[in-house]
Specification:
The complex is a heterodimer. In chain A, 36% of the residues lie in helices and 21% in strands. Chain A is α/β, with parallel strands linked by helices. Chain A has one domain (2-269): Protocatechuate 4,5-dioxygenase, Chain B. Chain B has helices at 2-15, 17-25, 27-32, 38-45, 49-55, 59-68, 73-87. The longest helix of chain B is centred in the C-terminal third of the chain and has 15 residues, at 73-87. Chain B is globular. The two termini of chain B are 22 Å apart. The chains are: A alpha/beta, B mainly alpha.
Chain lengths: 277, 102
């Protein structure tokens, strides 16, 4: 069939793990936007959900770090973190290995990938899934872009990966939803945790929602690190998502800095646009 | 290579129940399996989260190790701040302000 849904959301562990320490009014509005996104995904009756995430040393380490890795497992498990710390119960999540294999094979026409038949989900995937597929019954195709251990893949390659993923999705019969999940500006798990550069986030979101490729690819990692923190390097997931819907714009459903969640909490949905050629 | 070994030990602890069991039963033996300096072994033995942070350990690894050692969130953040006060700025890695990030 084709891509049927595209959006982005935050995934910080505080969103679930420190939920009782946030302002309940802002938190509940944020949670309501996740629910709205879940409803929108369900309305498209997807056969699988591709999650473009940025994991945090749950599976990949500097002994053999893939720039991009796509899951091809029968199933996955998560969260790898302590269940009480994250406030998400450990569970098994179904994969879609045959679909993964076809997508990977197609994407490899343009982009070198690693693949993994074994993958433990950390908060980077489990927090979004806990809101978007709370019964954990939708098959998942996880994608990881290394945003933690430099050298990191250039932004332009992330966008190109998104374009290749879109073409691959449009060539399979399944209905596929895709989300990108990462932080915008944030300094997670450092002494600056809770710091958020809202003007920087707003400008990034403006470029993202307009799907302004050149403006998105104009960010430099040294500037991003300085102004948006090391967590800002996760814009790679948003930029890859933008590549899946090249030429289409989007709508911001929620943005608010929630310092105890250590990130500007974001939910946005992009128009899916025409099928890739 | 030393930061690599420190981070690899924490990576294994975070994800591998067998390593965690080894950690509970024979901590010194586990430390001996990694190529660590005396300062690094001391940081592990004394749960000196601040020193591990200043050594350059990525927070995505360190916050879980801190939780394993009984630090709740605010105590973890304060331990890193104390580390900077005591040992100076982060020496290497993602948080080193002097690193070339182009």
């Amino acid at each position: 069939m084709s891509l049927v849904f595209a959006g982005v959301c935050s995934h910080a562990p505080g969103i679930t793990g420190r939920k009782n320490r946030a302002d309940p009014v802002v938190r509940d509005a944020f949670y309501a936007s996740y629910d709205r996104m879940r409803t929108a995904i369900e309305a498209q009756r997807p056969d699988a959900l591709v999650v473009i995430g940025a994991e945090h040393f749950a599976n990949f380490f500097m002994n053999n770090m893939p720039a991009i890795c796509v899951g091809m497992g029968e199933h996955y498990e998560g969260p790898i973190e302590d269940e009480e710390w994250l406030a998400i119960k450990r569970t098994r999540v179904p994969g879609a290995p045959e679909l993964s294999r076809r997508l990977i094979t197609d994407i490899m026409e343009d982009i070198d990938l690693a693949y993994a038949q074994e993958w433990k989900f950390d908060h980077g995937i489990m927090v979004p899934l806990s809101f978007l597929t709370p019964r954990y019954d939708l098959p998942i195709v996880p994608v990881n872009i290394n945003c933690q251990g430099p050298p990191l893949i250039p932004l332009k390659r992330c966008y190109e990966f998104g374009r290749a993923l879109r073409r691959a999705c449009d060539r399979v019969p399944e209905r596929i939803a895709v989300i990108g999940t990462g932080g915008i500006s944030h300094w997670p798990c450092t002494p600056d945790s809770g710091k958020i550069n809202e003007p920087w986030d707003r400008e990034f979101l403006r470029r993202f929602l307009n799907n302004d490729r050149d403006a998105l690819l104009a960010y430099r990692d040294d500037e991003t690190w300085r102004e948006a923190g090391q967590g800002g390097l996760e814009i790679r997931t948003f930029i890859a998502l933008a590549g899946t819907v090249e030429g289409s714009t989007g709508e911001l459903w929620f943005y608010a800095p929630i310092p105890i969640f250590a990130v500007g909490c974001t939910i946005a949905v992009m128009k899916v646009g025409e099928r890739a050629a | 290579m030393s930061l690599y070994a420190v981070q690899k030990l924490i990576y294994h602890l975070n994800r591998d129940p067998v390593v965690r069991k080894h950690y509970e039963e024979n901590f010194e033996g586990l430390l001996g399996e990694y190529e660590l300096t005396e300062e690094e072994r001391r940081a592990f033995r004394e749960s000196d989260i601040g020193l591990l942070y200043v050594m350059g350990v990525n927070g995505q690894l360190l916050m879980h190790y801190a939780a394993l050692r009984g630090f709740e969130w605010s105590a973890y953040i304060e331990a890193m701040r104390e580390g900077e006060r005591k040992y100076g700025p982060v020496r290497v890695g993602l948080y080193n302000r002097a690193a070339d990030r182009r």
